[in-house]
Design a protein that fits this description.
This protein is mostly helical. Helix content is 70%, strand content 0%.
Length: 74
């Protein structure tokens, strides 16, 4: 279900957007916002992984050994 929103655009962006036919503006803005949100989520996920990596202790042995050990413990 579509939602109508009000946003503030810089003059330069608005002037460029006005050149796009009305029926395509929403599609363009929706696509651009979707791409930016995906990039933002990925950036946040990478930051969280970096935080977890720096907070955890190094594990001795290979990752294969650690995974096998973990699987066998369940």
């Amino acid at each position: 279900m579509p939602h109508r929103v009000n946003v503030m655009l810089d003059d330069e962006i608005w002037n460029a957007l006005r050149k796009i036919p009305r029926g395509e503006r929403s599609r363009l803005v929706n696509h651009a916002v979707g791409n930016e949100l995906q990039a933002w989520r990925r950036k946040k996920a990478a930051q969280r992984m970096d935080e977890l990596r720096s907070a955890s202790k190094p594990v001795s042995g290979s990752s294969e050994v650690c995974i096998r050990r973990d699987r066998e413990s369940h």
